[in-house]
Amino acid sequence: MTRVLVAYASERGGTAEIADWIGAALRRAGVEADVRPAGEVPELDGYDAVVVGGALYEGRWHREARRFVRHHAGDLAHRPVWLFSSGPLDHTAREHAIDPVPGVAKFAGRLDARGHATFGGRLTSDAKGFLASKIAKRMSGDYRDREQVAEWATGIARELRRVAV
Ligand SMILES: Cc1cc2nc3c(=O)[nH]c(=O)nc-3n(C[C@H](O)[C@H](O)[C@H](O)COP(=O)(O)O)c2cc1C
Fold first, then answer.
1. How far is CA 155 from the centre of its chain?
2. How far does the centroid of ligand 1 lie from the alpha carbon of residue 49, in Å?
3. Residue 165 is assigned to a structural domain of this protein
4. Rounded to the nearest 5°, which phi and psi values hold at 46?
5. Residues with C-beta less than 6 Å from any ligand 1 atom
6. Gyration radius of the chain's alpha carbons
7. How close is the Cα of 120 to the center of ligand 1, in Å?
8. 99 — alpha (psi -120 to 50), left (phi > 0) or beta?
9. How many domains does the chain have?
10. 0.85 exceeded by the pTM?
11. Which residue in 35, 66, 132, 137 could disulfide with 127, CB within 3.0 to 4.6 Å?
């Protein structure tokens, strides 16, 4: 059975939950999936494909996602890779495809990633931190779309089946 690693980098839990949704959708589609924090994956042995996701902060992917890709660049080069980002605090990610931020686009190019998706984000009204609490006053809410995430993950499972044939 194909085994996929879903590695995520999340500050406030929203992206971690998206990674869980991806893992669940992959399993429903008959793919074995492990969902792990990007900083806690020592090696990629045993994984046939990798999905890497990070929260967006100030126009950049979460540091742990960047670090993961740099650290495992050699191993990722030999595997099908998908990337995702999260995300805008409005409904735009549901309305149309959003390009990766420049740093993530660069990684996608280097890794020859099979795909990238930007999903909506979440910020609670009681978010801690100087900037976060300021932003939360105007834009708090949950803009993640579980169905959209599951659909994307099902597409990955489909593609993996095609590659395996
Ligand atoms: C300080 C701060 C900066 C942010 N910058 C961006 C950004 O540049 N682009 C974006 O799409 N979302 C941005 N967001 C929204 C977050 O990406 C969103 O809240 C996301 O769901 C956080 O994921 P996490 O809960 O996994 O940490 C920002 C949020 C905060 C609090």
1. 14
2. 26
3. no
4. 90, -10
5. 10-16, 55-59, 86-89, 121-123, 131-132, 135
6. 15
7. 9
8. beta
9. 1
10. yes
11. 132
| 3-state SS class at 117 | strand
What spacing in Å lies between the alpha carbon of 57 and ligand 1's midpoint? 5
Nearest C-alpha to atom 28 of ligand 1 is from which residue? 57
Residue 3: both structure tokens together: 């085994």
Give domain status of residue 164, yes or no.
Answer: no
Residue 20 lies in a domain: yes
Q: Which domain holds residue 40?
A: 3-159
Take atom 29 of ligand 1 and give the residue whose Cα is closest: 57
At 46 the three-state DSSP class reads coil
- State how far the Cα of 125 lies from the Cα of 93, in Å rounded to an integer: 20
Per-residue model confidence as pLDDT tens digits over 85-122: 999 999 999 999 999 999 999 999 999 999 999 999 99
Atom of ligand 1 lying closest to residue 88 CA: 11
Query: Residue 85 sits in a domain of what CATH number?
Result: 3.40.50.360
pLDDT in tens, 65-92: 999 999 999 999 999 999 999 999 999 9
